[in-house]
Amino acid sequence: MDGKTLARVGAIIFISFAITATAIEMTRKEERPAVRPTPVLEEAADPLREGQRRCQQMGEAAARDSECLHIWAETRDRFLGSRTVPRRADEGR
Q1: In angstroms, rounded to a whole number, what is the distance separating the alpha carbons of residues 55 and 65?
Q2: Within its chain, how far is the Cα of 27 from the centroid?
Q3: How far, in Å, CA of 75 to CA of 49, rounded?
Q4: pLDDT tens column, 19-28
Q5: CA nearest 48: which of 78, 18, 19, 27?
Q6: Which H/E stretch holds residue 18?
Q7: For residue 16, is it left (φ>0), alpha (ψ between -120 and 50) or beta?
Q8: How many Cα atoms are found within 13 Å in the side-chain-facing hemisphere of 13?
């Protein structure tokens, strides 16, 4: 068998393999993942968040407001995951 004929046979085998693989891929059914509806979270009234917004709107004056300082301390504790014993109002600083 000469080289030219061998190249043609190889090309025919390759093309037939490609056509077969394409036909198999086209007839295969795609499994789609089950679609679950996205849960809608209702925003509950969070007094800490409302206080944060109020302090944000106060601007620079919030740095001198004792309630804002308390709100920021609570926010920091929530974020860091550390709960400190809250001070009572009658305790001195």
Answers
A1: 9
A2: 35
A3: 9
A4: 999 999 988 8
A5: 78
A6: helix 3-27
A7: alpha
A8: 6
User: What gap in Å lies between CA 31 and CA 50, rounded to an integer?
Assistant: 46
Q: How many CB atoms lie within 10 A of CB 55?
A: 20
Centre a 10 Å sphere on the Cβ of residue 52 and count the other Cβ atoms it contains.
17
Please tell me the predicted confidence (pLDDT) of residue 68: 94
**What pLDDT, on the 0 to 100 scale, is given for residue 84?**
60
Q: Determine the Cα angle at 53 with ends 51 and 56, to 5°.
A: 110
Query: If you search the block for the tokens 């789609």, which residue do you land on?
Result: 32
Whole-number pLDDT of residue 65: 93
> pLDDT tens across 43-80, in order?
677 888 899 999 999 999 999 999 999 999 999 998 88
Q: Whole-angstrom Cα distance, residue 48 to residue 44?
A: 11
Q: Which residue has the higher pLDDT, 91 or 14?
A: 14
